[in-house]
Amino acid sequence: MKNLQPFHLAFPVHDLKLAKDFYTNILGCTIGRSSDHWIDFNLFGHQVVAHLSPDELSKTKTSNVDNKQVPVRHFGIVLEWKQWHEFSQRLKDKDIEFLIEPYVRFKDEIGEQATMFFLDPSGNALEFKTFKDPDMLFKN
């Protein structure tokens, strides 16, 4: 999966100042272009754009996965194994309130992966995950 092209995702927020603080100070994003109504963030090399649009926000529904309530609508990044563990520790150190605490699924099995879920200040759900073997990402 080398030379993967960056993706672009736009999402609504209720407060750009809170979004800027969260995406830069908590997630470590840098800022690209911005206006009074939106901010471009570099999220691990991908362009995510927070748009001021409070009317579009709603509580996301959940789905039962591994006996955990996973937000149906979510986005995030698949990180390298070591990078995910370092990032999850950084989030714990910043006292992030997790919807689903960082944990490893399928430990010592084919498809071993780690995941975590949390919300941004506008209630957008984010998932960051990793695979012990990156080639397992699209295997069934």
Q: Can you describe what's shown?
A:
With 140 residues, this protein is α+β, with helices and mostly antiparallel strands. It has a single domain, classed as 2,3-Dihydroxybiphenyl 1,2-Dioxygenase, domain 1, CATH 3.10.180. It has two helices and ten strands; from the N terminus they run E-H-E-E-E-E-E-E-H-E-E-E. It has helices at residues 16-26, 81-93, and strands at residues 8-13, 30-34, 38-43, 46-52, 62-65, 68-71, 74-79, 98-105, 113-119, 125-131. Strands 1-4-3-2 form a four-stranded mixed beta sheet, covered by helices on one side. A four-stranded mixed beta sheet has the order 7-10-9-8. A two-stranded antiparallel ribbon has the order 5-6. Strand 3 and strand 4 form a beta hairpin. The model has no long low-confidence stretch (mean pLDDT 94).
Which sequence of strands runs across the widest sheet? Answer: 1-4-3-2
The CATH class assignment is Alpha Beta
Structural class: alpha+beta
Kindly state the mean pLDDT as a whole number? 94
Largest sheet: 4 strands, mixed
**Could you give the order of the helices and strands?**
EHEEEEEEHEEE
